[in-house]
Amino acid sequence: FGLQDEKGISCMLVELDFLKCSIGFPFMRAQTKYHLSVLFDTSRLSGENETLLFLVHARSANPEHDSTLHDNTLELSIPLVHEVDTAITGVVSPTSFVYGNSVERSHFVQLDDMECSFQPLNFTFQVINNGPSRLPGSTVNIRIPNRMAGNGADMFHIIDTQVSEGRGNCTWQRNPKPCTVPQDKESIFHTIFAFFTKSGRKVLDCDRPGRACLTISCSLSSQAKEEATSIDVQMLLNTEILQRDSSSVIQFVTRGHVLLDDRAVEVSTGLPEDTSLVFEALHSQEPRGYVVGWIIAISLLVGILLFLLLAVLLWKMGFFRRHYREIIEAEKNRKDSDESWDWVQKSQESLDSVQKIQ
Ligand SMILES: *[C@@H]1O[C@H](CO)[C@@H](O)[C@H](O)[C@H]1NC(C)=O
Ligand SMILES: *[C@@H]1O[C@H](CO)[C@@H](O)[C@H](O)[C@H]1NC(C)=O
Ligand SMILES: *[C@@H]1O[C@H](CO)[C@@H](O)[C@H](O)[C@H]1NC(C)=O
Fold this sequence. Notes:
The chain is an alpha+beta fold. It has 2 domains: 2-80, no CATH class; 83-287, Sandwich (Immunoglobulin-like), CATH 2.60.40. It is 23% helix and 36% strand. It has 4 helices and 19 strands. Strands 9, 11, 13, 14, 15, 17 and 19 form a 7-stranded mixed β-sheet that branches. The protein is rod-shaped and about 160 Å long. The model has no long low-confidence stretch (mean pLDDT 82). One of its GO terms (biological process) is cell adhesion mediated by integrin. Its main location: membrane. The chain crosses the membrane at residues 291-315. This is Integrin alpha-9-like. InterPro entries: Integrin_alpha_C_CS (IPR018184), Integrin_alpha_Ig-like_2 (IPR048285), Integrin_alpha_Ig-like_3 (IPR048286), Integrin_dom_sf (IPR032695).
């Protein structure tokens, strides 16, 4: 501590947290004021304390009337702000999986009395406090794209979340119907169209506007400097909903973000307070049997129709009539020419004979 010197003031440190000052020794005149200021060095604060509390008592050897004693005590409290440098990282397992009718059901998880095939997915997020102070508390928000389209069914079902060593807990909106099989009255033409267009890549990202996302909110308790807390999320993805989509690759971008307690401020050194995890659902690309049947049937029908159309068109243009007439005429011409040939030959023979005679 430092002390601003003023006449008639002397201080001594009685204990580490007890400073005693005598003012106006040997006496204070009536109606006089003394200004006292103390400077504390805060560089040694551990970051354990939420507020700094100073209790000041003024006492005198002289008797003082009880009714005027209330202003002899002063309580000064200073809320402390913790400087921290937090970072979040995460991993997802698996990073890709295959779905589709040709994938065996044993690759997926079935829940009791539900007909859906679920793909299990695990997320692990880690929040690290790189100091310099203790982080009194934080909130981690995890956002998962939950729908293929704005009005579709929710795809994810969270089984469990766990914060390491019980140092926090998570809340989320439960999915009341984890196994929704879309019962759209989809025509066979739509299915065939979907089969042929299953080529694109679709990205589902909560940072894009208009996305319906599932938010898991975890509140974490205090973290000392250099301490890490991990959050595990176990969940299931309803693959029946994926099957109805026409994309062959669906990319899910999940985002995690740390929010600090009011009592802490971030001193940024470039460590990220956001993270994104990506996993991909790959369609097996094998058409369903009846789709193949329908494709063949429709191709046949279209072929026959085209043939008939062409035939009618040609007939209308008089192609066949002209053709027959040409054939008939050609036949006639041929006969005619044969006859004339005969005649030529005959006349030649007769000419020859005439010559011989001559
Ligand atoms: C700071 O916290 C410690 C332990 O919680 C406590 O013993 C100490 O009195 C506190 N100091 C201040 C200045 O509040
Ligand atoms: C997910 O975590 C659970 C529990 O830790 C484990 O049993 C399971 O095998 C994990 N699944 C995947 C796909 O990593
Ligand atoms: C977990 O939640 C319960 C009830 O909401 C709460 O009392 C408890 O303090 C929380 N635990 C932590 C470590 O945040």
